[in-house]
Each structure stands twice: as structure tokens, then as C-alpha cells.
Design brief:
355 residues; rod-shaped; 83% helix; mainly alpha
Length: 355
């Protein structure tokens, strides 16, 4: 037992460690599902923010439909939370409740006194959703992913990616509003600030793509990063030429089309990378389960072998001692011609021969 028990304890520790790794990967996959639902809220909210920046006639025609989209997206986000315990995701739970408060307010009053005030409220809702995405990444363990490629895929598709296309969407809306109405100092400052942030986000997303996706040629060709860069650059150039320069002039509809193309490309890329990340996490779970099965089988085999050898040793030793004891009893009774019957060449056999 002194030999077998430590082996069994080591096997139990191995099982515990492996199942903990599998559980962590499964929690990350739950985070992917919840973040995917939150990204859907961001997309619907971006569409609604664009609608509130349009003329009154377009608002009347389009606002009810986008309100329904936002409501459906938020309901889907709520459903994703039912799969996990709020105790496990306590940090993101607070952010989620704050987001729901903003959601209810905008569902009741989507339009403010001015377009700028309306956009500010809707952008606060989008920022709150992005904050929830970051908290989910923390609570689910995605932010601490141990593998370099999956970490960068997470960073691209769940942290920087949503911030990138949310920022692009804000630029799109502000540029459209400036061309469609007029530029004012506050709006100009907002566009300059968003443009500076966009440079940082574009570089960070590109770096994560290179580390997590492009370094694997067979994987990199599955994603249209080049097309996304082309669409984003075209929109950035149009913003510089028509909105950020000395003169604000140009076709608002054309700028809006370029902005829509850039946002759509960025969202499509991040969603595909997110799907790839989910596949990689499932592959990690399968790999861990396979490794665990192999290790358990090997360890169990050696535990059984150790048990067999210990039992065999006990049987041989007790059998030899019983034979010696039998002969001693015969001699004690006066039978001096009794002969033991040794087997093998171990200590018991040698003792019988000596006897």
C-alpha cells in the first residue's frame, strides 16, 4: 500500500489538473458565445446610431426596425448569460446590469434634442457594450489564454477588433453628419480624436493578425485582411479629404458608402477570426481529453502492474515461509527426515535448502 497509494494519489492529481485545463477551455468557449452575442449588440447599436444621425424622415422610416434589431440582440445576449453562473462572472455581471439600464433608456427615448446629443447617448451605449466584452474576456479567462496564437486571435476579435469597428462606425456617423448638416468645433474635435485612436487600433489589430493568424500560411489565406485594409484605407482617405481638412465638402452618401464598406469588412474579419478561435479552443479541449485518456490508461496500467507485483511478492514470500514453518513443526515433533520443497532461487528457497 505504501507504493500503490502514492501512485493512486499522483493519478488523482493528474486527473484534477487535466480536468481543470479542460474546464478552463470550456469556460473560454462560453466567453466566446457571450462575446459573440455582445458583438451583435454593438452591430445593431451602430446601425441605430447611424439612423439617429439621418434626417427626420429617414428616422421615422428606419428607427422602428433598428430598435427591434437592438432589442433582439440584447435578448440574445441575455440568453447567453443563462449558460453560466453569475457568481463565476461577477465582474461582468455588474457591467451587464449597467448596460441594461442604458438599453431601457434608449428603447424609450432614442432621440434627444439635437443629433449630437442623440449620438452621444448611443455611443455611450456602444462603449458600455464594449466594456462588457472586455469584462467577459476577463471573467471567462480569455484574456489569460495560455497559447500565443489563440491569445492574439482573442485580442483581435474580442478586444481590439470590436473597438476598431466601433471607432470606424463613429467616424462614419460623424463624417456623414458633418457633410449632411454642418461642421462645428465640437464635432471637428471629436473627428480628430477618433482619427487618432483609429491609427492606434489599426496597428494593434494588424499586429495581432500577424501573430495569431498570418504566421500560419494555411490559416492566413482563409481571411481577407488585405481587402479589409483596402476598404479601411479608402474610408480614411475620404475622411481626410472631405471632412478633416480645411474645407468640409463632398457627397455624404458616397462617404457613408465607404464607411459602411470599411465597417462591414472589419466586422466580417473579426467574426471569422472569432469563429476560428472557437475552433481552436474546441481542438484544445479534444487534445487535452485525448492526452488525459492516454495518461490515465498508462498510469492505471502501471498501478495494476505494481499491484500485481506486490501481490506476487507477498504470495511467494508467504508460501516460502509457510513451507519453512511446516518443516520446523515436523522437526519439533521428532520427524528428522522431513525435507522442504523449495522453488525458484529467492531468499525463501535458499533458507529451505539450508534447512
Amino acid at each position: 500500500m505504501a507504493f500503490v497509494l502514492p501512485l493512486l494519489m499522483m493519478l488523482a492529481y493528474l486527473w484534477q489538473a487535466s480536468t481543470a485545463q479542460v474546464g478552463a477551455a470550456r469556460m473560454e468557449r462560453q466567453g466566446v458565445v457571450a462575446i459573440g452575442a455582445a458583438v451583435g449588440v454593438v452591430q445593431a447599436a451602430q446601425e441605430r446610431a447611424l439612423v439617429v444621425a439621418k434626417p427626420a424622415a429617414a428616422q421615422t422610416a428606419e428607427l422602428p426596425a433598428v430598435q427591434d434589431k437592438v432589442r433582439t440582440a440584447v435578448d440574445k445576449l441575455q440568453a447567453s448569460y443563462k449558460r453560466v453562473s453569475t457568481e463565476a462572472w461577477s465582474h461582468s455581471e455588474k457591467t451587464r446590469l449597467a448596460l441594461l439600464g442604458l438599453h431601457q433608456a434608449l428603447m424609450q427615448t432614442p432621440l434627444a434634442a439635437t443629433p449630437d446629443e442623440s449620438l452621444k447617448a448611443h455611443h455611450e451605449f456602444i462603449d458600455a457594450t464594449l466594456a462588457l466584452v472586455r469584462d467577459i474576456a476577463d471573467d471567462s479567462g480569455l484574456a489569460l489564454d495560455p497559447d500565443l496564437d489563440t491569445y492574439h486571435m482573442m485580442n483581435m476579435s474580442m478586444l481590439r477588433g470590436p473597438m476598431q469597428y466601433a471607432n470606424t462606425a463613429k467616424l462614419r456617423t460623424q463624417g456623414y453628419l458633418a457633410l449632411n448638416t454642418q461642421m462645428n468645433p465640437e464635432r471637428h474635435d471629436t473627428i480628430i480624436r477618433l482619427s487618432a485612436v483609429q491609427v492606434f487600433l489599426d496597428a494593434d489589430v494588424e499586429a495581432s493578425f500577424q501573430q495569431g493568424v498570418a504566421q500560419f500560411p494555411e490559416v492566413g489565406k482563409l481571411f481577407d485582411m488585405k481587402g479589409t485594409d483596402v476598404a479601411s484605407d479608402a474610408f480614411s482617405q475620404a475622411m481626410k479629404k472631405q471632412v478633416s481638412g480645411e474645407h468640409v465638402e463632398g457627397d455624404a452618401a458616397a462617404l457613408l458608402a465607404l464607411g459602411n464598406a470599411a465597417v462591414d469588412k472589419q466586422i466580417d474579419l473579426t467574426l471569422k477570426v472569432m469563429a476560428r478561435l472557437d475552433q481552436q479552443l474546441q481542438a484544445r479541449i479534444d487534445r487535452l481529453n485525448q492526452t488525459l485518456t492516454t495518461q490515465v490508461v498508462v498510469c492505471a496500467a502501471f498501478v495494476l502492474l505494481a499491484g500485481y507485483l506486490l501481490l506476487a511478492f507477498y504470495k511467494v514470500m508467504s508460501g516460502g515461509m509457510n513451507e519453512v514453518s511446516r518443516c520446523l513443526k515436523e522437526i519439533t515433533g521428532g520427524n528428522l527426515v522431513t525435507v522442504p520443497h523449495p522453488w525458484g532461487n529467492d531468499e525463501s528457497a535458499k533458507l529451505m535448502i539450508t534447512l
